[in-house]
């Protein structure tokens, strides 16, 4: 007899996604007594929880980013290390999104529920590569789950900078994306020096402390950005990027998969840390789920695509 999938195993609440069978929340944004956190980006990780279950890198990033805010206790687990929360057996799997990002494999009453968090299939030597596992239910992000969305090759995208004989003001999210961009620039724009904003520098250093030691960069130097004999990359977080809207003698570029973040810049740079449509379909084939539950986006196109084959529902 095939075990029954529980439709209410994970439900959307104001605080986040709740599992009553283990009495825990997944990626809650409001304080809860017990939180499982997939990765340290602010739209998934927040302070104030009683207990936080996550990977060691996620704990390190959260301690740094929320050092002045209240925390309970961290329960740190490495990938593939099983642990029990309530009646649910859980282990983390690499998600390929940023360093320490995890998928949650949750087993209960013979059913395996796989929560992806944010994930990507593209190569990235600054984080652990995605690992696939078969599951009865795939709970997948659907940020770019649209048949018209195809992420271009990141090497081709970053190499476009080589053709720009100017300094480049490169906007990037500080955690994950900035480290990936630094590595891509080192490899594919080797003549360019990478200068790093003070808001990104500590995270580069945290990455180095956790084994990502191959990045070549320097702290921002105002004098270097004024030289005319060489052209550098100044890597800045979003708020700094927006404050430099009147910057002269630089090319303004923002690295993102979102089209609206390319508007009003001097060049488009589509580098995303999320799966696109083809990658989602590829991953679904690997997981081979009986059901698909979508989060963080629009799952309607997946529902249409798998109509009559796999049940697809949206958790919100």
TrEMBL record:
Pfam families cross-referenced by the UniProt entry: Lactamase_B_2
InterPro entries: MBL, Metallo-B-lactamas, RibonucZ/Hydroxyglut_hydro
All copies of domain Metallo-beta-lactamase, residue ranges: 29-164
GO molecular function terms attached to this record: RNA endonuclease activity
Name of this chain's protein: Putative mRNA 3-end processing factor
Organism, as annotated: Parapedobacter koreensis
């Amino acid at each position: 007899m095939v075990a029954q999938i529980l439709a209410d195993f994970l439900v959307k609440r104001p605080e986040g996604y709740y599992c009553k069978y283990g009495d825990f929340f997944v990626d809650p944004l409001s304080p809860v007594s017990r939180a499982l956190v997939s990765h340290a980006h602010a739209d998934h990780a927040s302070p104030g929880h009683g207990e936080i279950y996550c990977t060691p890198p996620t704990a390190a990033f959260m301690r740094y980013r929320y050092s002045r805010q209240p925390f309970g206790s961290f329960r740190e687990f490495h990938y593939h290390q099983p642990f029990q929360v309530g009646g649910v057996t859980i282990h983390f799997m690499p998600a390929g999104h940023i360093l320490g990002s995890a998928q949650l494999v949750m087993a209960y009453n013979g059913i395996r529920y796989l929560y992806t968090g944010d994930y990507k299939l593209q190569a990235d030597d600054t984080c652990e590569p995605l690992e696939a596992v078969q599951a009865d239910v795939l709970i997948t992000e659907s940020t770019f789950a649209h048949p018209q969305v195809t992420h271009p090759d990141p090497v081709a995208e970053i190499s476009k900078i080589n053709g720009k004989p100017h300094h480049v003001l490169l906007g990037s999210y500080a955690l994950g994306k900035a480290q990936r961009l630094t590595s891509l620039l080192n490899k594919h724009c080797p003549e360019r020096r990478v200068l790093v904003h003070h808001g990104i520098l500590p995270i580069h250093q945290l990455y180095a402390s956790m084994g990502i030691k191959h990045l070549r960069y320097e702290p921002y130097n105002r004098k270097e950005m004024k030289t005319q004999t060489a052209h550098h990359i100044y890597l800045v977080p979003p708020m700094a990027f927006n404050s430099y809207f009147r910057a002269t003698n630089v090319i303004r570029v923002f690295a993102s998969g979102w089209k609206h973040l390319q508007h009003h810049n001097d060049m488009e740079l589509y580098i995303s840390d999320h799966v696109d449509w083809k990658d989602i379909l590829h991953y679904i084939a690997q997981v081979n789920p009986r059901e698909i539950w979508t989060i963080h986006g629009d799952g309607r196109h997946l529902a249409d695509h798998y109509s009559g084959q796999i049940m697809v529902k949206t958790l919100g």
